[in-house]
Design goal:
Elements (H helix, E strand, L loop, with lengths): L13 H10 L2 H8 L3 H15 L4 E4 L2 E4 L1 H25 L6 E5 L2 H18 L4 E5 L2 E5 L4 H12 L4
Antiparallel strand pairs: 1-2, 3-5, 4-5
Helix pairs in contact: 1-2, 1-3, 1-4, 2-3
């Protein structure tokens, strides 16, 4: 059976690679990530073995990205950012009394946002924490206490 995403590089090595590339040093990367310099070096070695080519040139006490390393850095940085955003969105699920509304950006902009001030006036405990496509409303009241308000807004009985 084929893997959905094909053969992926060792994901545990990406953070060390990104830090070393950004800082130009395995030592500085290890200090930032609170791991040993040897651990960063092993992470980089694992990536270089996976790709079959060097990602860095070692120059005295620093490292310089190769062309392949610069190319992969863009992808690694973007992917780490996406993973970080996903992790932050999941944090909202752990907050007691939170309600997560999943909606498209257009519905959020055209329907929900124009009604948000009415909703906040009726339920002052609501704290919108938004990013599309998921808008999160953190509330201390039960869901059913705000549901009638949503229904009234939907039918125009605001």
């Amino acid at each position: 059976m084929n893997r959905r995403f094909g053969r992926l590089p060792p994901l545990t090595s990406l953070e060390g690679f990104e830090a070393a590339a950004r800082l130009g040093s395995f030592s500085l990367a290890s200090a930032e990530l609170n791991i040993t310099q040897s651990a960063v070096s092993h992470q980089i070695k694992a990536l270089e073995e996976f790709f079959g080519q060097p990602l860095f040139r070692r120059v005295k006490r620093s490292v310089i990205l190769t062309d392949a390393g610069r190319d992969f850095l863009e992808t690694a940085t973007r992917m780490l950012g996406i993973l970080s955003q996903g992790q932050h969105r999941l944090d909202h699920y752990l907050k007691p009394g939170s309600v997560v509304l999943a909606t498209t950006p257009m519905i959020a902009r055209k329907w929900l946002l124009p009604r948000l001030s009415t909703l906040k006036a009726s339920c002052p405990d609501i704290q919108p924490c938004g990013s599309t496509p998921v808008m999160t409303l953190l509330i201390s009241k039960a869901v059913k206490s705000i549901w009638p308000l949503f229904m009234a807004m939907e039918t125009g009985q605001e």
